[in-house]
Design goal:
This protein is α/β, with parallel strands linked by helices. The protein is built from 8 helices and 5 strands.
């Protein structure tokens, strides 16, 4: 039976885009797993198989993420992009790695908007193969985007607030008034605190 899976990569970083991806297939006859549980090399190998399936994705830049956080919420932005992906789905049944604390609420919203059978589950990227496949697409594409940014701006680490290398990069950029507007999420508390500390 044809099913689709949707997942995102890069929800939490203070630097770089978020990627939402969807994969649709009748069956997945090769190994997949939650992208977070795989090494980079293993993800890349599986990506070659997964990318041969029907898939769609969106790369969402930091400015759009900031705008959503200011006006509504990050969840609201993900709802919008999940809806766009579902409307492009080749199948009637779509599994989503739930980004809302309330699974049934998100299911209801997306069912009402799309008319599709939407099933939202926490840890779906780990438990449902088609969502694992989507998580690999999203993660590898985001990793590729991060490498492109590093080739322009230098090595800023993982981009996550918990990464000391990322924090050093941000602090150095703020002190030196470097133009990193295109890559940083200014609405993140991490960035705001660093800016405040150097006013």
């Amino acid at each position: 039976m044809c099913v689709c899976g949707i997942d995102e990569a890069g929800r939490g970083p203070v630097i770089g885009p978020m990627v939402m991806a969807m994969v649709c297939a009748d069956d997945i006859n090769f190994y997949v797993n939650d992208s977070k549980l795989l090494t980079r090399n293993k993800r890349s190998l599986i990506f070659n198989d997964v990318s041969g399936l029907y898939h769609k994705y969106y790369i969402i830049n930091p400015a759009e993420i900031d705008d959503a956080v200011k006006k509504h919420s990050l969840n609201n932005l993900e709802e919008q992009y999940a809806e766009k992906l579902i409307l492009k789905a080749e199948c009637e049944k779509i599994y989503i790695d739930c980004f809302d604390v309330n699974e049934s609420r998100l299911e209801r919203i997306l069912k009402d908007r799309t008319g599709k059978e939407v099933i939202c589950r926490h840890h779906a990227d780990r438990d449902i193969k088609i969502v694992s496949a989507a998580s690999i697409i999203a993660k590898v594409l985001r990793d590729n985007e991060i490498e492109k940014l590093k080739s322009i701006y230098g090595d800023f680490g993982s981009g996550y607030p918990s990464d000391p290398k990322t924090l050093r990069f941000l602090e150095h950029s703020i002190i030196n008034h470097d133009n990193i507007d295109n890559i940083v999420r200014k609405e993140w508390k991490t960035y705001k605190n660093l800016v405040q500390g150097h006013i």
